[in-house]
Request: fold
Amino acid sequence: MRRLIADQTHSISLKLNGKPVHAEAEPRMLLSDFIRHVLGAKGTHVGCEHGVCGACTVRMDDGLARSCLTLAVQADGAEIETVEHLAPAPGSLSVLQNSFRRHHALQCGFCTAGILMSLDTLLHDHPEAGETEIRDALAGHLCRCTGYEPIVTAAMEAAKILQKERLNA
Amino acid sequence: MKPAPFDYLRAGTVQEAQAALAAEGEGARVIAGGQSLVAMLNMRLARPTLLVDVMHVAGGAEIRVERGQLVVPFAVRQAALLNRRDLLSEVPLLAAALPWVGHVQTRARGTVCGSVAHADPSAEIALALVALDGRVHLRGRGARRLPAAEFFTGMMQTAARPDEMIEAVSFPLSQEGTGHAFNEVGIRHGDFAIVSVAAIATGDRLRLAIGGVNDTPLVRDWSSLDERQVDDALNDLAWSLDARNDLHATARYRRDLVRRLGRKTIKEARQCAA
Reply:
């Protein structure tokens, strides 16, 4: 049990998108700032910084987390996945991302990284998810451009495609 | 929107956590899921000198059934309790109320005991704990168990002393022939409740618990209440509350929600009991 002192930086080790990383942070640094400013992964966006808008949502040890409501020191030893992890290869998109593109499920794109993490997790954990579950997951996100309908349509289409892929796999 | 500086300590045992709280005094806070506390840190509504992280203490996330109680220790996340296979038969009121706690994303990190420690007047878990006569297990230099109604002393105020942490909360297991129901109205699903209502019906007996209106959950019991008496009883209850006007709703709207949600929730609880 070591006390980490407030105005000093301390070493933090975690896995970001499958790769081990080591860096330094003060105890008060938010995970969102650690991911963006220290580790340089700018795909995760920061909106309200008090857990309301959902833009900064990431995956942490298989569950979702608001990275603005998580301290970097809490994530020491954790596995973090961000929107950069979703595409299977550079220049290609995941099934869900492709559906977003097809259905115009984003305009300015500020909220999109967080929404993709929530929906990707939902469709992975509950492949049978329908409109109710999709809307429930979306309730934790704010989008000011789309009115949500295209997002729901895109997620439902992605769910169907993924179910089919699973049947043929 | 960034926290003020604080020290951080990851406790390995409850004893370590408690000793750190006792040594630090008023400036120390326990951090578990952090879903309420980190928001308060970001807005600098809380400025602790030390955060004691209890999420890595062995055994802190193991829910157990003990002497007719469902015991939920300090590191159990809200999602873990909601996903418990037998929750609907063990504590049906919790199964009904937990989906209303925050969002999927915050339930994945937020803990049951953390919500109780935060003591927000609109919190669903606090309401269920008081409605069911649950208990709060506190660990300081010694251990004590407080009835939930004595634990919540005001808006975000509790009877916990600075050197105490919540070791667990316990909910009595449901008895056969008892019906439970929960309803809530907020601006959007997942927002703070404007009014939340829990009802417990056993035979003629009825209990209502109201959240979101007073500073702490309010409980009212009736030994019997037939169909013709319900509206008058709910009207009396609505007027006895300390309903206030604020940004989200008027006092009058809150009273009307108590009447309408109350009637609906009583009906549902009685149907479950039958």
